Amino acid sequence: DWTPGHILTEQVEAIRSVVGTEKVICGLSGGVDSAVAAALVHRAVGDQLTCVFVDHGLLRQGEREQVERDYVAATGIRLVTVDASAQFLGALAGVTDPETKRKIIGREFIRTFEAAAADIAAAEGGVRFLVQGTLYPDVVESGGGTGTATIKSHHNVGGLPEDLTFELVEPLRTLFKDEVRLLGAELGLPPEIVQRHPFPGPGLGIRIIGAVDAERLATLRAADAIVREEMTAAGVDAEIWQCPVVLLADVRSVGVQGDGRTYGHPIVLRPVSSEDAMTADWSRLPYDLLARISGRITGEVAEVNRVVLDVTSKPPGTIEWE
Ligand code: XMP
């Protein structure tokens, strides 16, 4: 029967027998999946594992610090951070098509990662394995082993190049998110990491509807930070699956503020409730919380003059807008 303790013991054994004395590398995204996968592999093979955190410039406020400081403190994992923001922003310049954005981000991610891996391999005498925090729903949605068509090209599964030189270690491949959280707690990871809401690999890049640039990212990052702060203060984090915050960068609407007319962008709130992200319903957040969020975003984020609520279930909507 399923307990986190059993899974942990079983996976640690399995990882040891597959990896042996070889070196392993793992990309940390800031999310719970890669955090738990890496902690599990670290438990199994210790410092044979080196983690790489690619800052692609599409992260939310405070995320890099949380990985570099809190996660490293909790696990003792060896971490290399690569700041690749300029490279990603350059590659994304002018691109508006969602799948093209995803492919570019996936490609740049792999390139950056492989360059970091090459450096680590040179220092370590070779790296054979790559850890991925792939979950069961990712496998299903990417058509891996089920015969279903790809719905979106999730870059942690479908975007890997054919000539990838690593062998994959995917210790979470049969698990759902709630099981991964229990496993993370069993591994001693702090609640802020284990209970963190999902965040897509392509990051804020697929939450800007329109082309991605530094200014738009700063706008979305500021709005997103307000949403997260207010939701945590209201104590609703545990009730919802996640709340994407989306910037409609190519849409403007007329508003009025102080004495003047404004012509700014809308921010979309997409709070959803779900068991496994395969289906979802829009979360009935308290109106006074929504009012506080709206008031703060329009008051504090200069480019935004309107906040709208997405009341679509999945299906027919996906959770993310791209
Ligand atoms: P959708 O938008 O397909 O999202 O309903 C389902 C869940 O997956 C997350 N998501 C991603 N996670 N890489 C990831 O690691 C991705 O490319 C990606 N795209 C979507 C999304 O946040 C939601 O939890």
From TrEMBL:
GO cellular component, one term: cytosol
Sorted UniProt keywords: ATP-binding, Glutamine amidotransferase, GMP biosynthesis, Ligase, Nucleotide-binding, Purine biosynthesis
Segments forming domain GMPS ATP-PPase: 2-196
A GO MF label: GMP synthase activity
Binding site for ATP: 29-35
Keyword Nucleotide-binding applies: yes
Known pathway: Purine metabolism; GMP biosynthesis; GMP from XMP (L-Gln route): step 1/1
EC number: 6.3.5.2
Top-rank taxon: Bacteria
Catalytic activity from the UniProt record: XMP + L-glutamine + ATP + H2O = GMP + L-glutamate + AMP + diphosphate + 2 H(+)
Task of the protein: Catalyzes the synthesis of GMP from XMP.
Summary of subunit composition and partner proteins: Homodimer.
Name recorded for this polypeptide: GMP synthase [glutamine-hydrolyzing]
Residues of the full protein shown: 196 to 517 of 517
